[in-house]
Write a structure and sequence with these properties.
homodimer; 148 residues; alpha+beta; three-stranded mixed β-sheet; 6 strands; DNA-binding
DNA sequence: TTCCTTGCAAACGATTTGCATTGGA
DNA sequence: TCCAATGCAAATCGTTTGCAAGGAA
């Protein structure tokens, strides 16, 4: 039985090969840590999760390489903390829930009908502002289930 | 004829007085710099704009105080740059346009009907995710008029 | 072999803090 | 007056880089 994350890894392998970027063991470790999460992770969180098997400097370089290759994407949230997550084409278009109590960030996929409405809003705003939208993100702040 | 920014300053004075926070000359300078902009400003931009009359360390402290008092709000955008702007209750609820070419960030107010649709989406997403929304932000990335 | 990648340590830029001084309510 | 706010310099934090050593094509 095919494991969906096997498939994910194969997609990433193909992408990196196309871009002539080597998939080394350290890079695999970092990708696995990001794939395991259900939201964007900070560099410090990734570092902790992989139990420091990849030194910080290499971790930063790895993240930069993967971002340039389009495998992961940056997310900017509270307190100037930079977070990374798998790119949309790997994990699907989604939005974020930011808890104002615990500071956590979670991914959320919204139903197609709502996503359609949202795209409609974005395109109308773009026309009105003489701006050409290529992407959008809805960030919802509030209290998560745990902190309610 | 009353100047709208006089009114703004009075609102801020009242708010700070309520919170027993002193409105010193340095803080006035910083607030004026933020009120003059039409989008969130980075610390470096503010520092330049006030011609270094407030040293960096004091500027950081001032921004922290104003944020705690609810007069200004943080905004997180590309490259881990932290930006500040007047709080929503002072400048009205709005969203952001992020240019992927020049890195600029601009404020945009969207028409009430679209804002209503957006609130509707947010509340439906919240219910579905067992999350209690208190605020939302639509960040639209793309090409600004200048960079098209 | 030939580059690319890694690890370490040092460098860097942004932000924070300690402390003595100044200034506002 | 009296405590909060300021300015400076030093400390700290997250991130980047130079360089020599290790590893994959």
């Amino acid at each position: 039985m095919p494991n969906p994350s096997d498939n994910l890894e194969r997609q990433i392998e193909r992408r990196l090969a196309e871009q002539q970027v080597r998939l080394t063991s350290g890079r695999r470790v970092v990708i696995a840590a990001l794939a395991a999460g259900d939201g964007p992770r900070s560099v410090a969180e990734i570092h902790r999760r992989i139990r420091r098997r990849v030194p910080l400097s290499s971790l930063y370089r790895t993240l930069a390489v993967l971002e340039a290759a389009g495998v992961i994407a940056l997310h900017h949230s509270s307190k100037g903390i930079t977070r990374y997550e798998l790119a949309d084409w790997l994990r699907g278009h989604h939005h974020h829930l930011l808890c104002i109590e615990c500071g956590g960030v979670d991914d959320i996929e919204i139903p197609p009908s709502l996503e359609k409405d949202l795209r409609h809003i974005v395109s109308r705003v773009g026309v009105g502002a003489n701006f050409h939208p290529t992407d959008h993100a809805l960030e919802i702040a509030g209290l998560c289930a745990k902190c309610t």
